[in-house]
Amino acid sequence: MEYIHLIEKTNSPFWAFAIHDGHQIDDALLPYLVADDDTRLREEDPQTGTLAELPFNRFISATSRFQLDLNRIRKDAVYLRPEQAWGISVWDEDLPTDLVNTLYETHDKMYKQIDALIQDTIQQYGYFVIYDIHSYNAKRNDQFEEIDTEKNPEINLGTAHNNPKWHELIKSFITSVRKQEVGLPAVDIRENVKFNGGYLAKYITDHYGAYGCVLSIEFRKDFMDEWTGQLYPEKLQSYKQLLLHTTDMLNEYFANEERK
What we know:
Layout: E1 5-8, E2 14-18, H1 37-43, H2 48-51, E3 57-61, H3 97-125, E4 128-136, E5 155-158, H4 167-179, E6 189-191, H5 199-208, E7 212-220, H6 233-259
Parallel strand pairs: 2-3, 2-4, 4-7, 5-6
Antiparallel strand pairs: 1-3, 5-7
Helix pairs in contact: 4-6
């Protein structure tokens, strides 16, 4: 059973991950899948792979989180119960145990691969930063619901798992995002309002937090209609430019650290 993903390396200590970008389900699992395409797409993070098109190393998942969710701990990485998946019944009750076990084994293998990628980056550069890019729904009731912007920031930055040594870098990232649109309202980016960062961030920072940090960047789905899937390309491009702009901040931060 395949977990389809792209790993693209470049000469950089920085990574962009989009582990919920994908929609594909392995053929071996399709006979047991009961969640429909539209329902799955709404809870996936389409276009986050586009947002991850940065001058970084990249890890982009084409496989759906509904097959295997790398942002969940192993025992919750397969949505066997509705409460694991926003009340959605994902799999037929006859889903074979051997397929489930294969998925759990794939989770182990993917994290071994992630280990190797981060270790190689640390060995080469001595540090790393990961942009862990996601999106989230803010209209849970219906398509025409008015967004509660107090509870749903435009960008939720999950930082709770990071080593405190990265506080200044995180602060610099937030400042960079807020200041870049001259003449327009500052981007509403806040820390840990909706999400603190998932298992991917926790795992990496637990194991390698002395060497780098994970910024779990959750975009409110303002770049699309979260109910119909209609894309708003200009808004998506503005978010991509926003992330591109922050790369100067990263380079300056680590250049200053080296001079200390």
